Amino acid sequence: MVLTEEVQEAIKSNKAIIGYNETITYIKTNKPRLIVVSNNLSSNVRKELEHNTKISKVKLETFDGTSRELGVICGKPFPVSALVIKG
After folding, report:
1. Predicted confidence band at 69 (pLDDT cuts at 50, 70, 90)?
2. Strand order in the sheet with 82-85
3. How far apart are CA 51 and CA 57, in angstroms?
4. Cβ(49)–Cβ(60) under 8 Å?
5. pLDDT surpassing 80 at residue 23
């Protein structure tokens, strides 16, 4: 499945958590299936997410678009820099 379709399906089925802070919290407390980040995420935020996903052994995918485009894919009127797809 293409990443865009996977994100949209997770949003529709209420299996996605949107937001950087929520993503970090979910990684530390649960086992997500996939983490999606936008390609314009700042390097220090990306490093923290990569570190946490490596510890949790979770796959991290980079969306080929900006946070605004990821927000549109999610059906939100705001930028989305990171999201979790629950397992």
Report:
1. very high
2. 16-18, 82-85, 34-38, 59-63
3. 10
4. yes
5. yes
Structure token pair of residue 24:
């970090």
pLDDT of residue 51: 95
Confidence (pTM) = 0.91
> Would you list the domain boundaries of the chain?
3-85
What amino acid occupies position 86? Answer: K
Q: Which fold has domain 3-85?
A: 60s Ribosomal Protein L30; Chain: A; (3.30.1330)
- For the chain, what's the residue count? 87
Measured CA to CA, the distance from residue 46 to residue 62 in angstroms comes to 10
DSSP code of 69?
A: H
- Beta-carbon contacts of residue 43 (< 8 Å; ≥ 6 apart): none
